Amino acid sequence: MEIIPVIDIREGVAVHARGGNRSDYPPLKSCLTQASEIKPLIADLLDWYPFRAIYIADLDAIESGQHSVLRYHELEKTFPQLEIWLDAGIRTYADYLQYEQNQIVRPVLGSETLAAPDLLQKQDVQQRAILSLDRRHGRFLGDQTLLQQPANWTQTVIAMNLDTVGADSGPGYDWLTELKQARADVDLFAAGGVRGEQDMLQLQQLDIKGVLLASALHTGHLSREAVASLMEQEHRPS
Fold first, then answer.
1. C-alpha distance from residue 82 to each of 110, 120, 231 (Å)
2. Pairing with 234, which of 2, 205, 208, 219 sits 20 to 30 Å away (CA)?
3. Torsion angle, CA of 204/208/211/216, rounded to 10 degrees?
4. What pLDDT shows up at residue 238?
């Protein structure tokens, strides 16, 4: 089971995502770090455990299209071995191309903001990007063809349940099962509601590749030992 820590940022400062109501996100409080700016926060997370990838939700870009491309070039220089899954509210191919030269960024195409679903048919996008299938209040966000044409999904897919983000209510197992049935060969990641080790073990039984986590890490509900155990299973030879 792969664990990808999540960082939500507004104006370069980390906030705590809860329930998808972005305007109400408070500043991040964490038992793992006192940092609020992106570079020291990432450094503290990697000191705590050597994650291979981190997911960043750039709320300014998602909400208003304000891309901060230089910020991620700076992160590339500081953390050249890290992979960043970046949701920057990509709407068009022009948005996507702004991050083309960044070697550590894998652009996340969120269904909530993606205005051009045919973007998924481009070969370079298929090879590099990550599709996030987003929903809120039990409803899918975005163009329905994204759900109806699973053959166009990228190899890595995120099931983003905004209702359960930061809610400590458990992941949406039924929806994850539906998505897995629609395209069994993708690497499916659960995002939202994962409370701790027991949820992750249950997701593992559903053949979910990994989870995106914030609250369970920053509240201490998931120990470093548990993270190491789950991550080592991912890499342990069969």
1. 21, 24, 16
2. 219
3. -30
4. 39
